[in-house]
Amino acid sequence: MKPLRLLTIAALAGMVVFGQDDPPSRAARLNYMTGPVSFQPAGVTDWVDATINRPLTTGDHLWVSDGGRAEMHIGSTALRLSSNTAFQFLNLNDQTVQISLTEGTLTVRLRYLGENQVFEVDTPNMAFTLLRPGEYRIDANPDTQTTQATVREGQGEATTASQALNVPPFQQAVVVGDEQVSANLQPAPEPDGWDEWCRNRDHREMQATSRRYVSPEVTGYEDLDAYGHWTVMPPYGPMWIPAGVPIGWAPYHFGHWVWIAPWGWTWVDDAPWGFAPFHYGRWAFAGGMWGWCPGPIAVRPFYAPALVAWVGGPRFGAGLSFGVGGGVGWFALGFGEPFVPAYAVSPGYFNRVNVSNTVINRNINITNVYNNVYVNNSSATNLRYANQNVQGAVAAMPRTAFANGTPVRQGGMVVPAAQARNYSAVAAPPVAPQRAAVLGPHAGTAAFAPRPPSGVINRPVVARNTPPPAPVPFERQQSALRQNPGRPVPPSALRSMQAEAPARQQVRMAAPARSAPVQAPTGGWRTFSGERAQPSGRPPATAPPRTPPAQQQPRQGGWTQPSRPPVGERPAQVERRAPAERPREAQRPAEKGEHRQRPEKEPPK
Of 65, 66, 255, 415, whose Cβ has the fewest other Cβ atoms within 10 Å? Predict the structure, then answer.
C-alpha cells in the first residue's frame, strides 16, 4: 500500500472566507496548575479536578481554590490565575476573547492583538478592554466591591455602566461600588510576588528555542524545549523529537478522548508537552523514531481537535476481542496528509485547517477530498495513509470505553500493522459520547472537587460586548448525538435548542461610548527593570492603533515570522531537563533568576 501523496490547493487558492457556522480556529490550553484547581465544562453542572492539556472554549469555568495557581495559553497570549479566582470564558472565537472574572486575580500577557479582535475582561462592576499588546493585571474583590485594573505595558479601557476611563501604561484604574460606582486613575503599585512569578513565566517563554521553528501563535510551543530536541530531516524539514518516551510509544496512544463542542471528539495527551504536537502539524516515522513536523511558520495556525485518521468498516474489530458493540481505531496523520473534520465545515475552513498545519504538495486535489466527504456525504475518505503501515501506530478501543472517555492505557490496545492496513478509513468514529466523556478522566471527583460558592459563580458582571447565549446543556443534545454518532450537533440545530437553555449568568451592559478623557496623575511608577516611568499626561480619547508585537510584522498574504534555519543546518541542541515531578503540572514554575542567559543568535536566513 503506497503512502498518500501530498496535496495541491490550486483549486482553492482564492477561498479565504469561512462559513458562518465554522468552529473557531483557536482554543485555550490549560498548561500549568499547582494546588486545588477545579473545572466545569460548558453544558454540565458538575465540577471536577482540572486536567492539564484540556482545550478550553466558550462556556468553560475554572475555579482556583486557596493555595492554587493556574496558567492558560491562547496562542502566544498567557492568562495566569491566582488563588481564590473564579474564571469563565464567556466567548472564545477567532475575533473575541471575553472573560468573566467574578473574584480573584488575573494577569494577561497579551503578545498579539489582530485587527478587529477584541479582548475583554468582565468583572462585577466594570468591563476592562485590552487595546494593545502588553501586560495587564485585574483584581476583583467582591467583599469590598472594588476592582483594580493595572496596566504595566499596553493600553486599556475600564468601562462601567455610566463612564469609561482610558488607562495608559504604568497606571491603575480603581472602580468601587456596585449600582453606584466611582472610578479613578492612580499610579500603578510596585510589583509584588505574584507579578514577579508571572514575569519569570514570561521570560521562560521568550527564551524558547522552538520559536525558531514554530509560529508563536501555536498554542503549547513553550513546553517543547524541555522535553525534546529539534533536528532537520529531509524531506520533512524541521522536526521535533520527543525525549524520554517509553519503548513502543506512538502519538495518540497515551492520553484520553473527551467530547468538546463544537468540535466533537478531542484528544487530551498525558505528556506535559502534549498539546502543540497533537493539535497542529503532523507526525512522521523516520529513522526508527517518531518526530513532529510543524506547519508553515508564516501562516496563521489553525487549531484542530485531533489530527488523526479513523479506521472502521464492517470487518473492523474481528479478532481484537472488543466484545458487544465493537471498537473504534485511529492513528496519527502523516506528513502532508489532509485532516478531515467530523464536523461540517466550509471549503475555506477545510483549506485553511490543512494548509496551516502541514506542507501542501501538488499531486492530490484537496477539492476532491472535500467534495467526497462533505458534498457527496461519503463515509470514507478514499485516501491512503503512510502511518497506517507503521508497526504499533494504530490504536483501538471498545466503543463503550471510548464513549466514556476511558484513558487509552486502561481500555485500549495496539492493532498489528498487518491487520491494520486491511481496514478502511472513515470520516468519523461512529460513537456517541456519554456524560463522562464531557467531564474527562476525573469524572469520579465530581463529589469532592472544590467548587466556588454559588454567590461567586452566579455574580453578575459588567460587559462591553454582548456574550453569546449560554451553551446548550449536554443532556439536551444527547438525543441528537445518538442519531448521528460521532458528529457534533449542527449549529443550526443548537440554535433551535437555545430557547430552552438556561439563562446565562446575568450581564449588565456597560456604557456604549467612551467618555471624555481623564487626566492621569502626575508622576510615574517603577517598571520591572527598575526604570522610572515618565509622567503619562493626558491619555488619548481614542485607543491608539494596534500594532503587532515584535517578530510579527504583517505582510500581504500572511504573517512574517522568524525564519527557520536552512534545511541541512542542525539547530543548536536544546538542553534536556527532567519532566516536572508534580504529575498535574505541565511545567514547574521558573525560579527567580532562572533563564537569564542571552538568547541564542538567530540562525542565518
Answer: 66
Write down the domain spans for the chain: 7-16+248-443
CA dihedral of 262, 298, 252, 585, whole degrees rounded to 10: -90
Query: Radius of gyration (Cα) for the chain, nearest Å?
Result: 24
- CB-based contacts of 96: which residues, under 8 Å, 6+ apart? 117, 118, 119, 120, 465
Gap between the Cα atoms of 114 and 547, Å rounded: 8
**Residue 342 CA from chain centroid, whole number:** 19
C-alpha cell at 309: 485518521
Q: Given this model, what pLDDT does residue 133 score?
A: 97
Cα–chain-centroid distance for residue 305?
10
Sign of CA dihedral 526, 532, 538, 544: negative
Cell representation of residue 550 = 515584535
Give whole-number Cα distances, 585 to 69, 78, 482, 588, 605, in Å: 10, 16, 35, 6, 36
pLDDT of residue 131: 97
The Cα-based distances of 134 to 130, 543, 550, 561 in angstroms read: 8, 14, 12, 19
CA-based end-to-end distance of the chain: 39
Q: What is the dihedral of CA 300, 62, 428, 496, to 10 degrees?
A: -100
pTM of the model: 0.82
Please say whether the beta carbons of 554 and 114 come within 8 A. no
